[in-house]
Design goal:
Elements: H1 3-11, E1 16-17, E2 28-30, H2 43-48, E3 53-56, E4 67-69, H3 73-88, E5 92-96, H4 101-112, E6 118-120, H5 130-136, E7 144-148, H6 156-164, E8 168-171, H7 179-182, H8 185-192, H9 194-201, E9 205-209, H10 213-218, E10 223-228, E11 236-237, E12 239-243, E13 246-251, E14 254-261, H11 266-278, H12 283-292, E15 301-304, E16 309-313, H13 319-331, E17 337-342, H14 351-364, E18 369-373, H15 375-378, E19 387-390, H16 393-399, E20 409-413
Parallel strand pairs: 1-2, 2-3, 3-4, 5-7, 5-8, 6-7, 8-9, 9-10, 10-11, 16-20, 17-18, 17-20, 18-19
Antiparallel strand pairs: 12-13, 13-14, 15-16
Helix pairs in contact: 1-3, 3-5, 4-11, 4-12, 6-9, 11-12, 13-14
Pfam family, one: Mur_ligase_C
Function: Involved in cell wall formation. Catalyzes the final step in the synthesis of UDP-N-acetylmuramoyl-pentapeptide, the precursor of murein.
Catalytic activity: D-alanyl-D-alanine + UDP-N-acetyl-alpha-D-muramoyl-L-alanyl-gamma-D-glutamyl-meso-2,6-diaminopimelate + ATP = UDP-N-acetyl-alpha-D-muramoyl-L-alanyl-gamma-D-glutamyl-meso-2,6-diaminopimeloyl-D-alanyl-D-alanine + ADP + phosphate + H(+)
Length: about 425
């Protein structure tokens, strides 16, 4: 079936779906294959659950006239998303980066939705399946689309850009994330910059943080929309006033008080302000959106407990974000301070060096108690009286005594796979 014909079928559906556990009535089900499952085998079930059509690539699972057989379900999903993106004809803003992607996306969406009907990536649907689903979730009511793109190896951002074909792009930063897949920091820069390559090649617009020399150097031939902290008539000037603990910024004579902690969130806020101004969102609306945004999902959440105030930042971690979080944590006035840190994943051959560096940094800062959890941190060589090490979370859980927390302030940070939000279950409310 030709994509334009399939698209006509899709327009009569309520949504695109790839999981029978989340089927919505009159949706179009795409029978994707995984390592341990074949979506084709769920085609009949999808129809029973209310799907209007099922798209399969194994004709043996054809059910009735509601079955659409294609050569590759995944490629069809991706091609349909690109076709739908052009059918809608709306501006698409794409963003990626090593740290802060999701927070920045939420801030941008909050700002732009003050003025426009927006549609943005939900959760972490930012890969070769998530990006197409994000595009297909946009409707004729959508005025601006916001697409988050994640990657852990070269050529992935280029591939996602070819699907979404954005008109605007923003890269939050280049940090020590997914070093194993990218092949080091230089590989991260090259991989993330594939978004720049696409936008420059297609003469599109790039928002850049003019304080970041990498962003500046990579966009010399681009159509840029810059923001920064240095006085310059060529770009939007935004100032960091404080971050103790919440980030407070100033634009002209207006102050925005956010619910985001850490100076590292300043650039995320500044980007949202700059993008809002470019799209002519009134500043009072920009201010309102940023001040209303409260982080969730284990991202820099402030949680009160009987013995301590917790900074829960357990959604993800890499050496760059871990170091930034520790430096911010050390600046806080509350004492004593406890840092509970979990392993950082996907660092490849740099893992031992990076975990050693983080444990040494933690010891060097005014942090009173350091609890390291995970097999990588367990093997670090830094020794100090304030360090405790546990090879697994269960080891920590078995030995942890809530009364051992010194009180004051506690930082919890680790990679998603460590699921350090489980620490909350061990601390009385």
């Amino acid at each position: 079936m030709e994509i334009h014909t399939l698209h006509k079928y899709f327009l009569n559906c309520s949504a695109a779906c790839t999981d029978t556990r989340n089927i919505s009535k009159n949706s179009m089900f795409f029978a994707l294959k995984g390592t341990h499952f074949d979506g084709n085998s769920f085609a009949a079930e999808a129809l029973k659950l209310g799907a209007k059509y099922v798209v399969i690539d194994n004709p043996q699972y054809a059910v009735n006239e509601q079955t659409i057989v294609v050569n590759s379900v995944l490629e069809t999903l991706q091609n349909l998303a690109t076709y739908h993106r052009h059918y809608l004809g709306i501006p698409i803003l794409a963003l990626t980066g090593s740290n802060g992607k999701t927070t920045t996306k939420e801030l941008i969406n909050g700002v732009l939705s003050q003025q426009f009907k927006t549609s943005a990536t939900k959760g972490n649907l930012n890969n070769h399946i998530g990006v197409p689903l994000t595009l297909l979730a946009m409707t004729t009511d959508t005025e601006i689309g916001i697409v988050e793109m994640g990657a852990n190896h070269q050529k992935e951002i280029a591939f996602l850009c070819n699907i979404a074909q954005p008109d605007y792009g923003y890269i939050t930063n280049f940090g020590k994330a997914h070093l194993e897949g990218f092949g080091g920091v230089d590989g991260v820069i090259k991989g993330k910059s594939e978004m720049y390559d696409y936008l420059i090649t297609h003469n599109k617009y790039i928002f850049i943080n003019a304080d970041d020399p990498i962003q500046v150097s990579k966009t010399k031939t681009a159509r840029i929309i810059p923001f920064g902290t240095k006085k310059n008539q060529k770009y939007t000037l935004i100032t960091l006033l404080e971050a103790n603990p919440f980030v407070c910024v100033k634009f002209k004579d207006q102050v925005i008080n956010s619910h985001l902690i850490g100076a590292y969130n300043f650039n995320n806020i500044a980007a949202a302000i700059s993008i809002g101004l470019y799209f002519k969102v009134p500043f009072k609306s920009i201010k309102k959106a940023i001040e209303l945004y409260v982080p969730t999902n284990n991202r820099s959440q402030i949680i009160s407990r009987e013995k301590t105030t917790l900074i829960l930042d357990a959604y993800n971690a890499n050496p760059s974000s871990m170091a930034a979080a520790l430096h911010h944590f050390a600046l806080q006035k509350e004492t004593p301070k406890t840092a509970i840190l979990g392993d950082m994943f996907e660092l490849g051959s740099a893992s031992e060096e990076e975990h050693d560096a983080i444990s040494s940094l933690a010891v060097s800062l005014p942090i009173d108690q350091i609890i390291l959890i995970g097999s990588h941190f367990f093997q670090t060589k830094t020794t100090h009286a304030k360090i405790e090490r546990y090879k697994t979370f269960n080891d920590f859980k078995t030995n942890f005594k809530p009364q051992a927390l010194m009180g004051g302030l506690t930082l919890i940070k680790g990679s998603r796979g460590m699921a350090l939000e489980r620490v909350l279950d061990l601390i009385a409310q």
